[in-house]
Amino acid sequence: MSWYTSCPKMLLGATAVAVPLGATVFRRESEKSENLLKIKKAKELVETTMAIQGIPGLSIAVSLDGKMVWKSGFGYANLESFAKCTGDSVMRIASISKPITATLAAQCVENGTLDLDEDIRKYLPEFPAKKFKNEDVKITMRQLLSHSAGIRHYATEKKKSETHEDPSNNNTETPEFLSNKPYNSSLDALAIFKNDDLVEKPGSKFSYTTYGLTLAGAVLEKCSGKTYRQLANQLFSDLGMRNTQLDTKEKIVPGRASYYQRNSKNILENCPEVDCSNKFAGGGIISNTTDLLIIANAILHSILSDSKNCLLQRETIRKFLEKQVPVDSKTSTGLGWFLVDGKDLKSIDGNISNSSFFYHTGAAVGASSVLLVNTSSGVCVAILCNLQNTTVLKLGRDIGDLFHGEI
Q1: The pTM is what?
Q2: Which one of 173, 325, 360, 403 is most buried, by most CB atoms within 10 A?
Q3: Rounded to an integer, what distance in angstroms lies between the CA atom of residue 399 and that of residue 402?
Q4: Which domain holds residue 288?
Q5: What distance in Å separates the CA atoms of residue 131 and residue 161, rounded to the nearest whole number?
Q6: First CA to last CA across the chain, in angstroms?
Q7: Could you tell me if 397 and 286 lie in one domain?
């Protein structure tokens, strides 16, 4: 298996091939014709989804066996200037930030500075000791990364929906979700929730939380001696993810899309300005689909290769992709990812698909996203759009099935 990267120092041994970003590579001429048919069908799927959900702009990229086979943009990155959305448009990736944080945690595990099953207060003694129903409990990084630590999500009077279809698309209309208050670090952002009661007993069940990843980010800051920004930027640099960074409102970012929402009358409007420093580790990163495929394929290569020059060692990443707690009958959490057992899931053509995959969706102010990786087929799909409260997981699944299957 080959893997493309824009960063020469991440070449993966003699058998690996570096493919220029945006290039399309085919093993034989017949594949080109077949791929054109798949792209035509994929475009139809995207356009139908955008029409049904009223999405202003969408960017998508697909890779197969480490090689990009399709990248495109649809609609508009900015409705006021009629700037078109491209395959390189930069948008909020929202909760896809969580797998990135899990990758940073995996690196800390490998360098011996982090134990997934140790009480986090060993690293972060300033975090208050917790009780659940008067019982002393400990919180671990394993629990934080698998949404089973009992840390609350954004404060809301509504009970959040915990569904397989898009468990990250919850509580997107709360004051905390729309926060405009800056924080200097993940450690500082703990002030929002560190004194609140746990919502579940740690390790007992799935309870989706972005603040759990804020806490995980603070643990990483303490065990590494670096800020979350420094850790993330080093990862992006190592992988050649040149269009990926923490979401800061002051900085001018070339290619950044505008963000939209629908009001109570279903009319499109600009989203309010927000500050994402309360959730950098759980939902505060911006990127484009090309960069997302870089990290997806780096992880995929780590799973399949025994090379010592991968992003992560095979043993490490496979442990991060072990089932932790169930979400529903077909979905479990891994560490930073959702794992789907493809058995009995219907594919795009209505037939039964046995294709298992891991993924993460995202829901941010003015943005929705999905990053999906199918280990058995080698297909990775990244989708970003500039409208909140949309669902693109099914689109990602259908397009993944399309590029994996036969026309």
Answers
A1: 0.88
A2: 360
A3: 5
A4: 8-96+245-404
A5: 25
A6: 23
A7: yes
